[in-house]
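Q: Is it fine to ask for two folds in a single conversation?
A: Yes, each is treated on its own. Send the first.
Q: Here.
A: Result:
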Amino acid sequence: MVGDNRNLAASAGSRFALWHRSSTCLMKSMMNRVPAVFVLRSLCFAGVCGLAAWTGWSAVPKPVPPHKSAPMRKPIAGHAALLKTVTPVRALTPIKPVRKAPIVPPAVIAGGPWTEPTYADSTAGDRVDGEDLAIRRAAVEALGSFNGSVVAVDPTTGRVLAMVNQKLVTSSGFQPCSTVKVSVALAGLNAKVIQPETKYRLPGIRMDLTYALARSNNYYFSTLGQKLGFEKFSYYAHLLGYGERAGLNIPGEQPGRFPTSAPRNGGVGMLTSFGEEIEQTPLQLAALMSAIANGGTLYYLQYPANQDEVRNFVPRVKRRLDIAGMIPVIEPGMRGAVEFGTAHRAADDGDIAGKTGTCTENHAHLGWFGSFNETGKRKLVVVVLLTGGKPSIGPMAAGIAGDVYRRLGDGNYFADATQR
């Protein structure tokens, strides 16, 4: 029995040894026959499969049994914001080459969406037979190539001495911008809403009328307008010439416009600081400046057609304005505009009083300056309006008016009181 067991064990050991040697030989044979490239490809494929399973690319997610709810895990503090910033990565798509369209130059002048040219021949179509040619020459040379107009008036008679760009001057009118502040000041003083010493508090400063006119402060005149109210300002504005023709039988002249109610854009404050919804012609501003220069007489402006009409000229009074006592109150602010304010480009050896205006209307810059001289034997009113791009601003208009005064002063125009 023992011997049989020993024989069986020996037989089993022999069979195991034989199997082990055979298996080893088979594996060595297979390793020798399988190319190394196949092994590497198999390993890569296995790795990709493992990565896909780990990142959740499986087409069929593991369903949650209906009788069990998915476990809820509270987010770790500080992770919520981070989770909001994580976005899935999308596969990149090929970028198609973009063909650039040819660059087309803009239809308007450079610098903005301006619909009016900055430069033009502003003398085209003008008739000059009844003008003072010395003043006309000075006005044309001072305006140069700008698109605009220059009106010169004798404030003691209402005669238009020169009118450059007559088509623009007699047009339907333009927003007066800050030149309206002169009328607002006169209305406020007349209605006793303000006194000469009245000051409004601004951030860091208390401002009076003189400084507000010189610096063209919008807050001051917006506040004054709100205290006046629309009805009162409308009444005084019409007395000062808004909404009616300034001239008498001037061909093509338009009456401009004054609104029938406070503007939608900003109400009476915008009306009295920027002239919102008002249409003012250069002739209207020239008539108002003439009334201030002569002490309160609003003349009909007359434009002689020839030298016979010049010789037979007769002034015509439209109405007398009760502003004589207010002129000494507003003149310091108008002189201050030239001496240290918005119209400093008009500074000259003689005293000039005036008011600038700058704003944008219908995609065009507007630059206004209404003025009169205060020295010499002859008085003169000069109004400049520029329209176009960025250079068309009030200070530029003031510079052109100042050039007119200088050119005439060099020719001793103001020293000679002889009528021409």
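Q: Second one now.
A: Result:
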Amino acid sequence: MSDESKTRPMTESATPCASRRDFLKTSLAAGLGAAGILGMVPAGVRSAAWAAGSDAPEKPEVKIGFIPLTDCASVVVASELGFDKKYGIKITPSKEASWAAVRDKLVNGELDAAHVLYGLIYGVQLGIGGPKKDMAVLMGLNHNGQAITLSNQLKDKGATDGAKLKALIDKEKREYTFAQTFPTGTHAMEIYYWLATYGINPMTDVKTIVVPPPQMVANMRVGNMDGFCVGEPWGARAIYDKIGFTAVTTQDLWKDHPEKVLGTSLEFVQKYPNTTRAMMAAVLEASKFIDATANRAKVAQIISSKSYVNAPEEVILGRFLGNYDNGNGKTWKDPNYMKFYNDGYVNFPHLSDGMWFLTQHRRWGLLKEDPDYLAVAKQVNQIEIYKQVAAQVKVHVPASPMRTSKLIDGVVWDGKDPKAYANGFKIKV
């Protein structure tokens, strides 16, 4: 939202309720849909009208897809604990088998929204990794809490970190296989980044494959892979089952990195703006609830069930509370464990976060040329509607849509020159 739109006064004709009703009737008679009407009303008027409770959800029930991962918690909790009812909707979580299924169902409308990979939404927006469709990132769902897991066979050969893995690959020539969860997704970009940091080209030096998150541990158990990057609890489950160990957490790769988002199609936002806001408000309240340490045991119990993550409660709870064991003799209390709220910092859809995924898609050849990084991010990340919801739910909004981070290789990302950043890596396609 621009500074101008934040301070723009309501026009005289839009303020009275009767005039507003006349405006809506006239617009509908002229053949404008809800999205068209919404686009004609100034942002300040839309926000004030919704806050006054005059804009009921157009769609009383929303189906939100999720993959069995710890970070689906805010969607599940919004439904299980009734945060959705507070905003006049019913959220129905829909357990999906793979990220490809989530993508397809978002595109064809079988799902209204989803707990989804950030990079998946951007891939669909630009027509890479699947069909092309205008998409929307409504809000972030979590930071941190993923891991790169290596097999115990690699540990037995001394490959316990990136540098030692590079040495082993150089010494023992064979096909090394690493799994991620979706070609344009977070885990692909994270494991590629980590491998490249240590001089391993993920496109030429090793083989990478796509495996759905719940199938990672089973595939490692039968020897189909040397390592994988995935969200919890599957990294912890590999340790629990004594088949792998954590080489690096993703928060050590990039502290407070963007992870899953609440995503949908732009068409849904335009057709059901009030429903979209109600859904976001419910999930935002759930995010607040989960981030209270006292509530995490209860949440772990809820999401551990077969309907959701289908994993032992203790496997989920350890890292959910920041209690880490890497499966190789190290235990620690991690202050940068999975966060769902963090005073709204997690949830604000920073433009620079979306742009980072585009830079990595460019780096690895998924994008054949540089897009207009900022323009794409502004189209996808729904900052204006997020600010409306944040104001209603009384959530702090960061001052800038950009943020600065230093990743594991020491390179700083701030979104200022994405083209130079994407093309500045020594290892790239």
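Q: Anything structural to flag on that second result?
A: Two points. The longest strand covers residues 61-66. Residues 1-52 have pLDDT under 50 and may be disordered.
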